[in-house]
């Protein structure tokens, strides 16, 4: 069969095709090698940002927050137990020291005072009676001694006289001048006189024995005095308990909390193991403080006397001045976070607008320098124990490092104490992502490492 198209087909020579392909590959390879150094140079220059050492003001401020507290909070309790019958002040009411805050029904304590007064009166009456008995007994003893001594003296005289008469009668009888009856009568009278003398002496001794009884009366008086003293103490205690039914403000301040109402029965803390019923809280707001929590990484920069700026959500457009007055010596650990309590006194004239328990944001001025050399904080690099900044060197990809001494920083800028001069040019390393790093190394999405593939 004959073909309808007899025109012969043109064919490219195989050597010509190979030559064209080779020329294309060489051109691509040359283009690749021409572009590769330029890309590396651009990448090196893009890895750093130029900066200049300049003079500026730096304020190192530490930010923290905490509640506002009053100078002093006094929890008021009542030593007496009973029903509240007066409660003149409500929450937020100002009070002065000595104002009556609360009154308890005093009927029970008044009755106790009356009983103590009666007991004291009875004890004083017993004491007075004992004293009077001693006086009477002393007078009786005195009179008895006088009578006994007189009786003894008379008995001694009578005994002596009658004994002498009996002896004379005996002498007269020997001379036959006295009868035996007269002698017997004289001797009997002498014996009776001797007996009377013995009785008189016994009477005097008895009066002396009464002196010991007086000592017992004196001891009774001491016991009566002790009873009087005891009753006086009992009366003072009863009066004290009566006075405790009235509770007065211990300080000037405001009532910041009120936990009871009129008619409520309260328990005394002296008779209750739970500490008794809390009644009121009086707060001294003449001075206000912020108890701020500062992270342990910042606490080393804070010390008493530093100034602070305070703000609260209630007054977003206002700033209040303050001063650090105390730094806690011991931190508080919550989970793995350690914070230290810093007490800041609010000194601003407008502090009366602030209320306890408001949350305050505080900026503590740890250090400040109004004219100092500074660089951006990210320009500071650490090389072991030293700090350096980078400057351009012979190799653009590897800048030179200069050691510097730094001072304070405000987060954005760091003070340079020594190492570089003003207006010196420095380089700031730029952070790159893993993806960019992989691209610069010829990873996925970039040119393959090394030269062009072999032919």
Describe, in plain words, how this protein is organized in 3D.
The protein has 455 residues and is α+β, with helices and mostly antiparallel strands. Among the domains are: 75-106 and 244-281, RNA polymerase II/Efflux pump adaptor protein, barrel-sandwich hybrid domain (OB fold (Dihydrolipoamide Acetyltransferase, E2P), Beta Barrel); 108-243, Helix Hairpins (Orthogonal Bundle), CATH 1.10.287. 38% of the residues lie in helices and 32% in strands. The protein is built from four helices and 19 strands. It has a six-stranded antiparallel beta barrel. Helix 2 packs antiparallel against helix 3 (180-243).
With strands numbered from the N-terminus, the spatial order across the biggest sheet is 2-9-13-11-10-14
Which structural category fits the helices and strands?
Answer: alpha+beta
Q: Supply the CATH architecture of the domain at 108-243.
A: Orthogonal Bundle
Counting H and I runs of at least 4 residues, what is the number of helices?
A: 4
Fourth-tier CATH superfamily name of the domain at 108-243: Helix Hairpins
Strand content: 25-35%
SSE order, one letter for each helix or strand: HEEEEEHHEEEEEEEEEEEEEEH
Q: Please compute the radius of gyration using only Cα atoms.
A: 58 Å
Provide a concise account of the structure shown.
The chain is of the alpha+beta class and 455 residues long.
């Amino acid at each position: 069969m004959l073909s309808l198209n007899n025109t012969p087909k043109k064919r490219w020579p195989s050597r010509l095709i190979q030559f064209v392909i080779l020329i294309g590959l060489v051109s691509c390879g040359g283009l690749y090698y021409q572009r590769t150094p330029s890309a590396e140079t651009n990448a090196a220059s893009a890895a750093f940002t130029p900066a200049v050492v300049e003079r500026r003001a730096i304020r190192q401020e530490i930010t923290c927050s905490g509640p506002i507290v009053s100078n002093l909070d006094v929890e008021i309790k009542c030593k007496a137990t009973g029903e509240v019958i007066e409660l003149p002040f409500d929450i937020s009411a100002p009070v002065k020291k000595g104002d009556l805050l609360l009154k308890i029904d005093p009927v029970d304590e008044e009755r106790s005072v009356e009983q103590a007064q009666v007991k004291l009166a009875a004890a004083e009456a017993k004491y007075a009676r004992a004293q009077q008995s001693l006086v009477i007994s002393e007078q009786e003893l005195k009179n008895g001694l006088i009578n006994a001594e007189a009786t003894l003296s008379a008995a001694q005289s009578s005994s002596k006289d009658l004994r002498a008469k009996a002896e004379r009668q005996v002498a007269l009888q020997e001379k036959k001048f006295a009868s035996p009856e007269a002698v017997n009568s004289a001797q009997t009278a002498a014996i009776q006189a001797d007996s009377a003398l013995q009785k008189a002496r016994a009477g005097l001794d008895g009066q002396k024995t009464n002196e010991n009884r007086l000592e017992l009366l004196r001891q009774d008086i001491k016991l009566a005095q002790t009873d009087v003293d005891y009753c006086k103490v009992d009366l003072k205690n009863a009066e004290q308990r009566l006075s405790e039914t009235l509770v007065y403000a211990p300080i000037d301040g405001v009532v910041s909390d009120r936990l009871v109402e009129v008619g409520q029965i309260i328990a005394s803390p002296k008779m209750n193991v739970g500490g008794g019923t809390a009644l009121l809280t009086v707060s001294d707001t003449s001075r206000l403080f912020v108890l701020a929590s500062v992270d342990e990484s910042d606490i080393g920069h804070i010390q008493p006397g530093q100034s602070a700026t305070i703000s609260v959500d209630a007054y977003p457009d206002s700033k209040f001045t303050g001063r650090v007055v105390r730094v806690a010596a011991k931190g508080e650990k919550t989970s793995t976070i350690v914070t230290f309590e810093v007490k800041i006194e609010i000194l601003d004239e407008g502090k009366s607008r602030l209320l306890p328990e408001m949350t305050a944001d505080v900026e503590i001025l740890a250090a400040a320098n109004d004219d100092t050399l500074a660089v951006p904080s990210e320009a500071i690099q650490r090389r072991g124990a030293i700090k350096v900044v980078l400057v351009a060197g012979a190799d653009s990809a590897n800048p030179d490092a200069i050691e510097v001494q730094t001072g304070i920083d405000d987060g954005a800028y760091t003070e340079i104490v020594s190492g570089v001069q003003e207006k010196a040019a420095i380089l700031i390393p730029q952070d790159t992502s893993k993806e960019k790093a992989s691209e610069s190394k010829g990873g996925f999405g970039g040119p393959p490492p090394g030269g062009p593939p072999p032919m």
